[in-house]
Amino acid sequence: MIEQIDLNRIPQHIAIIMDGNGRWAAERGKPRSFGHQAGVDTVKRITAECTRLGVKFLTLYTFSTENWNRPADEVSALMGLVLSSLEDEIFMKHHVRFRVIGNINRLPEEVQKKLQQTQDHTAQNTAMTMVVALSYSARWEIVKAMRANLREILAASRGESNGSMVQQLTEETFSNHLETHFMPDPDLLIRTGGELRISNFLLWQIAYTELYFCDTYWPDFKEEDLQRAIASYQSRQRRFGKTEAQVEQAESGERKTFCE
């Protein structure tokens, strides 16, 4: 599969909805926690492969705000997995920087401390940034960013008219208050497990992201599956609102400039 990939056009940012852990475990007569543990092993493999290919940002949807509604024993097991999976091996071996996004204040204090320690310990790593979405909801993020942006505008308004203040709320100022302000929007979003929905994940950021869905459960997702998703991404023309002819003309001009 690797021979079908252009290593010069690897997506800079890949986001993944890691779905299917529970169903994978159920098909084997195991508890759901068994599937989540197997999913951690897949995270390690895919992280290593992303760094090898040259991906710069990998964002993993690990635990959504809605997941708090799951049975207490499963939530507890997931929190335990978060703690045990934040090992030096997965980050220091591959020189990966760790970041977390989401409503972290809802997490157990022990988990919050471990997350911060891992972020601090890996802050100087430069090969790739792994971003884990924990207790995350895109709608929560958007409302939070809107409130922060409005507070900033009101604090600086000094008697300006409402119309003037409204004009200060732009896509750029809004984006600066999102959880993901430190990285580019995803180029490619992968969802495993056969479901065809986004599930409240990065709704603002994926406006022009290429989407890839596969039936493979996350514990079975291999390096070849990642390569297949990247090959699909590279086979598409990203137009960002332009026509096909405009994109081809721009690409032709870039090639001509490069050759000169």
Automatic annotation (TrEMBL):
Relay the cofactor remark from the entry.
Binds 2 magnesium ions per subunit.
What positions does UniProt annotate as the active site of this protein? Answer: D19, N67 (proton acceptor)
Q: Entry's Gene3D superfamilies?
A: Decaprenyl diphosphate synthase-like (3.40.1180.10)
Could you confirm whether the keyword RNA-binding appears in this record?
Answer: no
- Cofactor(s) listed: Mg(2+)
- Biological processes, Gene Ontology terms: polyprenol biosynthetic process
Which HAMAP family does this one have? ISPT
Stated name of the protein: Isoprenyl transferase
Task: Write down the species.
Answer: Hoylesella enoeca
